[in-house]
Amino acid sequence: MKKLEQMITHKGFVLPGGILKVDSFLNHQIDPDLMKDIGEEFHERFEKEPVTKVLTIETGGIAPALFTALRFSVPCVFAKKEAGANLSSDRYMTEVFSFTKQHLYNVSVSKEYLNEGDSVLIIDDFMANGKAVEGMIDLCHQAGAHVSGIGVVIEKEFQDGGRRIREKGYHLESLACIRTMSDSAISFRIQKDEDLI
Amino acid sequence: MKKLEQMITHKGFVLPGGILKVDSFLNHQIDPDLMKDIGEEFHERFEKEPVTKVLTIETGGIAPALFTALRFSVPCVFAKKEAGANLSSDRYMTEVFSFTKQHLYNVSVSKEYLNEGDSVLIIDDFMANGKAVEGMIDLCHQAGAHVSGIGVVIEKEFQDGGRRIREKGYHLESLACIRTMSDSAISFRIQKDEDLI
Question: Which terminus of chain A, N or C, has less C-beta within 10 A?
């Protein structure tokens, strides 16, 4: 998605440790027009899937997930990060290791909002090692729900999350796929629809 | 806002301690069509204000704030909840007491995204004792920004946050204002535009 890549190039910062900061339009200040376009784009890429629900994890995934859910006319559910490991019979819970924060945390979703028969489109802001998405896949499996697709706004191709998840057979789409990045330059994988230009 | 009141009545639950749970359309599962309507409604109520930015606090406020920001064509900034009290020279920070969780936490916003000259519309999901909104007002004051209005999705009129903030002269609008609630019934303040019906 060209508009997104341009914003990453012009407004993103690469921090030591392979962290890409996009706080000016995605993770702290949000550009609502961009989020609307992202929702349109995910809808286009997954419109053949029978989506009944969009699932994400708070907080970074909420904005893109919400506009995607709007376009599909389905509810958006966000899994909650839990401070402790409070197991509860009315929630599905899984563990996620955060690459950015370098710690393990629990995420959970109420059993009311993820059901057998749901066809779930998982949306997240970032994919590095893929642990957050794998956590959401696990939540869907616990619920007996079908994962109909996975959309991430920014994928770091040089980490192995995307490869691992595609190898498992999931339909994974990323709107900007970063090949390499340093504090002076960011390069993207050329997207299919841009090959023709 | 009639549609919102009906959803609260039909899908909300009142828990002991005066907590209203609206997890099925606002705080865990989000109804994106309702959020779009909420954005329209806040735009209508504040359209005379020269809004340059919408400010909220993660997580519950993000959805209504985002659609309001979209309608005003301005950025949406969400203040972040901080685990510790890490003072940093590049962030404005304030303390907020959460009525729902009964504890004190810090919220902060990067100085980059809140500026002198900004005319800020503060949006939040709930107002009970008003502490979250007062925290956001404080962040705006620290930045030298003007608070042009405050919009809350659900106000609990029987707690004193709304009264206190209106007495200070702020233009505060709530889309559903709860007069009384118990586990068997919820009553709303009649809104001005509904007096005529």
Answer: C
- Quote the minimal CA–CA distance from A187 to chain B in Å: 26
Under a CB-based contact definition with an 8 Å cutoff, are residues A65 and A39 in contact?
A: no
Give the least confident one: A23-32, A73-82, A184-193.
Answer: A184-193
Alpha-carbon distances of A16 from A19, A20, A179, A183, B188, rounded to whole Å: 6, 9, 17, 8, 52
- Nearest 10 degrees: Cα torsion A83, A89, A90, A91: 40
Interface test with B, best of A38, A66, A100 (most B CBs within 10 A): A66
Residue B43, both tokens = 């735009």
Closest CA to A52 of B123, B29, B111, B87: B29
* CB atoms A110 and B31 under 8 Å: no
The Cα–Cα gap between A106 and A189 comes to 32
How many residues make up chain A in this entry? Answer: 197
| Interface contact A29-B59, CB threshold 8 A | no
User: What digits encode the pLDDT tens for the residues A19-44?
Assistant: 899 999 999 999 999 999 999 999 99
pTM score: 0.95
